[in-house]
Amino acid sequence: MGKPAVVLLSGGLDSTTVLAIAKDQGFEPSALSFDYGQRHEVELASARAVAAAMGVRRHEVLHVGLDAFGGSSLTDEAMDVPVGRSQRDIGEGIPSTYVPARNTVFLACALAFAEVLGAEDIFIGVNALDYSGYPDCRPEFVEAFERLANLATAAAVEGRQRVKVHAPLMRMTKADIVREGTRLGVDYSATVSCYRADELGSCGECDACSLRLKGFAEAGLTDPTPYRSL
């Protein structure tokens, strides 16, 4: 048994790679996923499949109804998910797929889980290079949350816990992430990154699909996840 850790697991390419990295570093990860009212809830089936395939001992799926607030095309059916955007457009501004405060909420739940488990390490798959401009994917955010975490729990105040938030993908391109996961033996066929995914596969047109496909292409590999339109 390795040192306990909590890994935020969406079932997508990035979080699955992070789970593999945590295991490779000798941690015994527990996984935490969220049903937050996302339109692409098929990702939760992928998260369960990934957790089972990678031997995760404990995998919790929490219901956190962020769709009650709306404000994102991922949680509000009245808003359209952007499709067909160029890589340049994807890299500029904050898109409608940003879910207000999502990573803050997720990390807060991970912190509670970690305190109960006696874990000092939390892993999250945020990335500041090939990403869609989300403010809660920046190094400054991760660093600030880590400071907060060490002020927020009884275990930290009593000196029984010193929380470290790991973001191992922060400075990696999507191609780098794909290569690293492949090196670690990740089966990406079970993962779903698409914002419009359903039981038939990923759309191949949204920002998440574009970034994922670009990563596999630059890594010289074929994306094994099914696509509806490719």
Question: Care to give the gist of this entry?
Answer:
With 230 residues, this protein is an alpha/beta fold. 37% of the residues lie in helices and 11% in strands. It has a five-stranded parallel sheet with strand order 3-2-1-4-5, sandwiched between helices.
Give the helix/strand layout.
Blueprint (H helix, E strand, L loop, with lengths): L2 E6 L4 H12 L2 E9 L6 H12 L5 E5 L23 H4 L11 H16 L3 E3 L15 H14 L1 H4 L6 E3 L7 H10 L23 H12 L12
Parallel strand pairs: 1-2, 1-4, 2-3, 4-5
Helix pairs in contact: 1-7, 7-8
Number of domains: 1
Helix share, percent: 25-40%
Radius of gyration based on Cα positions: 17 Å
Mean pLDDT: 94
Quickly count the helices: 8
Q: What is the C-level CATH assignment?
A: Alpha Beta
* Alpha-carbon distance between the two ends: 42 Å
Helices and strands, in order, run as EHEHEHHEHHEHH
Annotation, overall tally of beta strands: 5
Shape: globular
Order of strands in the sheet with most strands: 3-2-1-4-5
Work out the strand percent.
5-15%
Most strands sheet: 5 strands, parallel
- Overall SS class: alpha/beta
